[in-house]
Each structure stands twice: as structure tokens, then as C-alpha cells.
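Homework-ish question, so no full write-ups if that breaks the rules, but can someone show me the predicted structure for this set?
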Amino acid sequence: MTLLDIQTLSLAIHGFPVLQDVSLSVTKGEIVAITGESGSGKSMTAMAVMGLLPKGARTTGRIMLGDRDLLATSERAMCGIRGNDIGMVFQEPMTALNPVQTIGAQVAETILIHDRTTAAKAEDQARDMLARVGLPTDRFPLSRYPHELSGGQRQRVVIAMAIARHPRLLIADEPTTALDVTTQAQILDLLRDLARDFDMGLLMITHDLAVVADMADRIVVMQNGGIVEQAPTGALLTGMQHPYTRMLFAASSHRVNLPPAPAPEPLLEVSHVSRDYRLPRSRVFGAPGTFRAVDDVSFTLQRGERLGLVGESGCGKSTLTRAILGLEPVQEGSITLGGDPVFSGTRPNLAVRRRMQVVFQDPFGSFNPRHRVERLITEPFHLLTDPPRKSARRDAIAEALRAVGLSPDDAHKYIHEFSGGQRQRIAIARALIIRPDLIVLDEAVSALDVSVRAQILDLLADLCREYDLTYLFISHDLSVVRSVTDRVLVMRDGKIVEDGPTETVFSAPRHPYTKTLIDAVPQLPDLAALRRSDTHA
Amino acid sequence: MARTRPNLCAMLRYSLKRLLSLFISLAIASLVIFVVIEVAPGDPASFMLGLNAQPETVAALRAELGLDVPKWQRYLSWVGGMASGDFGMSYTYRTPVTEMIAARLWVSLPLALYALTLSTLIAFPAGIFAASRRGQAGDIGVMGATQLGIAIPNFWFAMMLVLVFAINLRWFSAGGFAGWDKGLWAGLHSLTLPAISLALPQAAILARVMRSALLDVLGEDYMRTARAKGLSARQTLWRHGLRNALIPVLTIIGLQFSFLLAGGIIIEQVFYLPGLGRLVFQSISARDLIVVESVVMLLVFAVIVVNFAVDLAYAAVDPRLRSRT
Amino acid sequence: MKRNLIIGAALSAIVVLAAAMSFVWTPFDHAALNIPAKLQTPGATHLLGTDHFGRDILSMVMVGARTSIAVALVAVSIGMGLGVPLGLWAAARKGSLLDELIMRGNDLIFAFPAIVIAILITAVFGAGAVNAIIAIGIFNVPVFARITRGAALSLWEREFIMAARVAGKSAMRISAEHILPNVMNLLIVQGTIQFSLGILAEAGLSYVGLGAQPPTPSWGRMLADAQTLVSIAPHMALIPGCAIIVTVLGLNLLGDGLRDYLDPRLRVARV
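A: Not a homework solution, just the prediction itself:
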């Protein structure tokens, strides 16, 4: 039985076309996943179903929920449908809840809007619903505030709010993108269970193809506001009619070809490093507590080695990164690069710092918007006692830009003229320009779409061949780390729990945490094998 | 509806911390005021007795006024006196400063509160109205009016009110204070024009703050979540928007109280009100520095205490503050 | 919304031009008494009428603009000159004792409204326009320090600042090279708002005798003179009042327009 039927939906916002001829349907108990890169229109499709489009939106086509056209439904009637017939879960659990209301009040509100029941009864229902999503009332009383919960727990509250009225359709817009892998696995399981138990249709929007392949009964692939392909999951994975679909899947399982590492020679030595933070006082006159973010960490990075550092949020990898870069002092232990300490006394050691550079995650925030590219990428020259001038400087800029696949003419542009992927190339050029011994890549591809990410990873491999790069690749994304590193460190609660060659760690993890982590990562099925078995059958 | 149960212990801890910083601020403020007044040239005793006074008479008066002891001792006794409600003796009138101030405070404080009430009563509906009609005629109208309201000097506005409502229409008296002994109504009646002239420019500012705070909140993710639950745009604004928008608005209300109290000093001049403003100007011309010192300290004290109250109000509105110490 | 910017700039320009012109030319000598011509309503000879001493009001308003602008300008400069470096410094040392000291100091100054500072100064040193400048200037310091620190703090979290730190730049250099240019828009907008508040404050202080003293003409003093005569010569009160309103309105519109033009997301504090 068709529950939601979107028929030739087109959408323009202030005359700018966003969606063209989108047609898809969801039946009872079915999980349909819409996937695509940023700007594909997948979230706008969801907002159109909810009737929560931004001002200036014009739609054509029909969105049928049962026998009712949602596009022709008045705003007043839509209020009765939202939360009652359609529930929605959002991407960012940290901000999706009202910070000044208790979780109980927020879940009960969904019930009270749609049902003329008493506050006490709504509260009882809210309690049951929170227990159903894994927040039992003895550990998570209704009087908790959102800020007292973790991201995963908050997402459970958002889910409880969305399903409190047992809606027929649940829309989940990137529900796990902001969460850690182990939490992601739990939330996905929860959504799958709920869809089955409540016999709901689940329309899921996600950019993560592994999640899509794992969860969905049917997959819809979108690009530039239109659907390029849709089919039942098995058929789509083996068939893949459209070149864009093939490109997308190829890019997400992209493996780069790293050149062999040179003979080992210690470059970065981290030995018994610990870093404490002061916690706020817990009592008025009590001594302030401390929190050990990095706890007795030791490892050696060899020259020419590509080392990965993985861990979930809060594991201490960012703190360790800042300590290695000499941005913050450590309480115990030492960090040396080629034998020299990165932090001498209370000041960072400039002689060491000029041999180390960094690439950050956010392609939009890592450049001063007021400077031109030439000034941006030559900032590390500040570290040199005798920086190149005039023509030597121009040559250095041109070479760095060429090395990352940009044109020397780009030096005179401002950063807003570049796309996210190009900005990440510029960030790499900035790191390369003083030819450092070590480059720290801090979540450097995490904000990029899969196709762009594959290109940047290839660029890294090329640069390894050309410049004998040594890098430390820090990421929460295990599949990326697997493809671009020789060796990997797994970090948890400030400690390194596993250290070994990447392939060995991934195929035969020794530490139980590593195993949990790897198991939690949704895997793309082996497409070649799928296809083979399909043709044999 | 699940009840909001503030964590009492955390609330208490937060209040204690704020209270401590309140006392530190008061101590430093009093020291600053004392030091500034101390550098004033001239000796109050010789000034009071005139140029031809005998040195012995001056010395006797100095002793009587307590000017002959070391400065740090005088500071301590001044602060100690204030703590027990004794502000010392007026140099000019030889009456306790506390009595002089108390009489004037009964005009200035009600005036400030009256104006604050008016300002809030005008600003909240105006700000909410404008925010809920963003970009429409109603919004543009309210914003234009507030733009003008901010530009009008309150004492000039007061003069215009006198011209229209007191001199031409004769609805109010042009100045003076009836006194509270004539009844609450008579007192409020004579404070109405001053309160309106104080309140309107502040209301204009507060309405703008209210509007922009609401518009900021409207862009938050949780407002979208509330809409997805089935709340209408208006319900979302009232149930989820207002309380969150209140946080920046409270800051401004706290600041405004001090502006109203201080601004009252000027407005009292327009209406010939016997408030703190008149007292302070008389004392400046009479070089009655101990009165000036005390009134200034009292005003600063009021500002600091109101800020303390605002900090506590924050914690009542925002549970995140209660758990963070 | 360029309308705000244009109207605001035009109104402000008129006031500044009038003040500038008063240096070389005014219709009459602003200080010349002419008792026979006293209390004239606006007319052909005296475009905006005369006051109770027969002085030409237009000339006084033009010269008074000078006082207002000078006081407000110097006061804003004091506020910016001290407040911005303090704010930058506090942000660069976030969470340190220094930051705490600067911010507590700011809170303390906020407890002294400009009029209270003016009262203190006048009580000690006597009345004068300089008092108004110092009083308003001191009060501007925490305004600029706070807003600079707030904006700088969020910039310090940005990755381009991290990149500059990795490039070995000192906190002072980063503040000057990266932070200050990126908070400049905000400071310009806040500057115009504080300027308009300075005009209002100067008028208020002069009105109660804590600001400019005779014979220096000032809008606040003109209003004080007008007060007792408001029923027989309302133009004496109306004209300086309108001058203040036009100036403040112009500056506020200019500030709002600049904000929309430079960056609509700027957070400006209105106190």
C-alpha cells in the first residue's frame, strides 16, 4: 500500500530551480533512502513533504499522503499532520532541542498538541516513549535538560518526539551524520526497529552510501535537484544504470595507490605525553578537578610514513594534535621532531615548527576571507629566517599551486571564489610551500563530498610520490584512514589502545574497542561479488 | 507537562558565586569613589567657615566632621557606616545624610521603577509584534518609530510633554511633586509625565532588542523541530521562542534600570522633582562632598545590585547556567 | 536596504557641513546680544528666530553642532583607543587572569553611568566640556572592549587563526593582522552608534550644567535656557531639539545602513 507518493514535484525558491520532476513513493513498512551529494536537493525534498519550505518557494506537482495532496493542504491542516501523521528527525541533535525545556516537556508537547488528553497522561506516554527509544526513566528522568545528555542521547529524544504519536511516515534527514560510528550504529538499529514495530514508512536522507546500502529497501539517487536513478537496493547495487550512480559508489569505496614507504628513520617521537585540563569546581570551596585528555601516549612516526590516528569524539585526538603542533604545552612527557622538542620551556620552538605544517577540516573557515590566495599560502614563510622574495616568492607560489592541481593565476583570487574541494587544495598548498618534514592532516577530507574526497585523497598519494611526504592523518572516518595510511593508531579515552600496520589492524584487530569500532562502520557490500552472484543465479 | 525542577544545589552555588563577586564590585567601587573625592582640592571645613576663620575653629570643625584621622581610617568608617545605614553628616546642613537621601529616594526610586514598567510594557508587545511580522508593513512601522524614539533626547521630550499636557491641556502639573502622603494616586499622577519621558526612548531600544533576539531565535534548529511536531508558527514563537529570546532581553533590562535611575537625575531637573538629582546638584554647588559621595555610591550600589538580580534571573531562565559553576 | 545608508549619510553630512561652515561663516555672530530683537519667531531676518537675549538661533545651532561633534568624536576615540586593544588583549588571553581582570574592570565601569562620572568629576574639578568628554569616553571603553572581545573570541576559534599560529605568529601579530581587520566592520558600526549616543549624552550633561559652560554654545545649554520660556517661545526648545534628533537619527540610520551594507550578521550592542 502506497503511503507517500511524490509525483513530478518541482520546486523553485525565489525563481531559482531547486527540484525538477521528482517522483518517488514510500509504502507502509518500507525504508526508502534518498542519497546524493550536497546540493542534490535531497533535504529540500524532505522539507517539501513536511510543508516547511523557506519563504519564496514555489512548487508544482503533487505530494500524496494516502489520498491527500500535501501541497494543496492549508497550513492549518498541515499543523495537524506534522508530528501526528509524519514525524521528522534532524541532522544536528546538539541544537535540535529547546535548551530551556526539559526533555519530558518536549516529548509530551508532541502528544498534547495532537491529543486532547491530560498533562499527566501525556507525561506517562512521554515516559514510555523515551523508554522505547532507549532512555529509561530511572536513568533519564523526564526532568533532564538537553544539555545534560550526549549527542546520541539527544538524538534519541528527537526520535521519541517524532514517533510519539505513532506517525505513518517518519522522515530522517541525515540522522547520524553528526554522531560517532558506534552511536551511529545504535541509532540506525533503533530507526530500523521502530520502522518495523510501528509499521511506519521510513524516508531516510543520507550522503553515506554504506548506510544507504545497509538500511534501505529502495534507493533513490539524486543529483542537481533531479532523480537520476531509483530501484530496489539489490537491483540498484548490481545494476547501476546511470554513470553518476556508478561514479558515486566508485568514489565512496575509492582506494588510493600509495607508493611504498622509504626505509624507516624516526622523525616524530611522542613519548609518555599527558595533557590535563582543569575542570570547573564541583563545590563552592572544593579544589578544581582535572580531566586527563591525553594519557601517557607514546609512538614514533618514521620519515616517509603515512600514519593514521582514529578515535571517536572526545577521545583526545584533537588535544594530541594541538600538542604535536606545539600550540599547547603538555604536562608530562616529550614530543620531539628529528630530536628537537616542539615546545621548549613555555614557548613553541620555532625551529621545529617550520618543519611541520597542518591542513584543517573546514574548507570555509581555514582562510582569512580578506586576503588573496598568494598571501594565504605564503603565511608559513613567516617561520623562515630568510623567506624567498620577489621572483623566488612568485615561483614558490606557482609551484605550490601547480603541485595541488591549481593554476598559478589563482594566486590573485580571493578564497570565496573557490569551491570546497579547491579550498582544501589551497590548504594543502599552504602546508607544502615551506617543504615541511611532516604534514598533519586534521580531518582534512571530512567535510567534503565523496567524489571530491576521492580526488583529494588521490592528490595526497601523488604528492607522496613527488615529495616523499610524511603525514599524520587524523580522522574519525575509518574507511578513509584505511585507504591512505601505512600504519594506524586507535585512540580511546586519552590512551592509544592499538598501534599497528593499517591492513593488519583492520583485518585482525587485537583490542576489543578496535573491533567494536570496525564492526560499527557500515560497509558497502562488495559490488563485484554481488554482481557475479547475480549473473550466476 | 513535565515540571521544571531547578536543581536547588546548583542554583545556590551559582547565587553564592555571584554574591561574592557582588561584594568585590561594591568594595572596589566604593574605593574608587572615595579616592576620587579625596583628591578634590580644598578642605571642606575651611570652605564652610569662609576665608577669615580662625585656625582653631577650623581644626575643631575638622574634628567634628571626622576629617582629622588618617585617610584609610576614614574610608573604613565611611564604608562601615554605610553598611549600617549611616552615611555621615552633611557638611552644609549638619543633618544626617541618610535622612536627606531617604527623603529623596522616595521620589527617584519609584520614578525609575515606574519608567521601567512602562518601558517593558511598551517594548515587549512592540518587539513581538514586529518580529512576528518581519519585513511586513507592521514591522517597518514599528522599526521606524523606534528609530525616532532612540533619537529623541528624553529631557527635550519631557519639555514637549510639559508644553502639551501641562501648559496647553492642563492634564498634569508642569512640575513639582505632590508627595506620597497625599495618596498613591496623587504621587503617581505627578510622576507620570517624568516616567513617560524616561520610558519612551528606552522602550524604543528594548523593542529593537526584543525583535532582533526573537529573529535570532527563529533561525534556531529547535524552532524547526517544534514546527515538525505540528506547532503553528505562532505557537512556536510563544512556547519556544520567547523564553530563549528573554536571555539577551534581560541583559538590556538590567542595564536600563541603571540608565533610568541615572537618567532620572536629568529628568528631575525638567520637572523640579525633589529627587536625588536635585540633591546632588545642590550639594555640588555647596561643595557638600560627603552628600555627593553618598549619592554616587548609592546609584552605583543600585546598578551593581540590579546586575546581580539579572544574573539570578538568567539562571532561572536558562538551565545551562545552573549546572555550570 | 540601501535607503538607510543614503538617508543616514545625508543627514549626518548636513550636520557636519553646518558645523564646518560655522568656522568661516554664520548668519550672525552667535554670541552677539541684541535685546531689542529678543524672542523673535522664525522669520526672514533670523531664519530660525532669536532667543531671550536676541541671539540668532541658527548661528547658535551651527556653532553648537561643533561642540556636540567634538565631544562625541573625542569620547568615541577614547572608548575605541582604550577599549579595542583591551578587548583584543583579553580575547588573546582568554580564560587567563588578565582576561578576568579586564572583564571585571569593564563590569565595574558599567556600574558608573556617564552622568555619575560627570557628577564626580564636576564635584572635584568644577564644570566644563572636558568633563563631558571624559565621562562619556570612560563609559565607551567597556562598550568597545566587550564587543571587540566577543567578536575576537569567535574568530580565535576559527581555523585560519590556528593556521596562523602554526605559521608561528605571535598572539599580538595575529590580533593585528587577522583579528582586527575582521572585527573592523563591527567597530565602525558600533562607532557610529556610540557617536550618536555621545551626542545625546553631551546634550543631557550640558542641559544640567555638567557639560559645556557659557559662552561655549551647545544644544543642551540652549534647551536649558529655553525651559523657563517654553510656553511663550516654544521655538527656542523646538529648534535645538530637532537639531539633536536629526543628528542622532542620521547617525543611527548610517550605522544600520553600514551594517546591512558591510555584513548583515554583525552583532551590535545597543545600550
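Now go work out the reasoning yourself. Hint: Residues 450-467 of chain A form the longest helix (18 residues).
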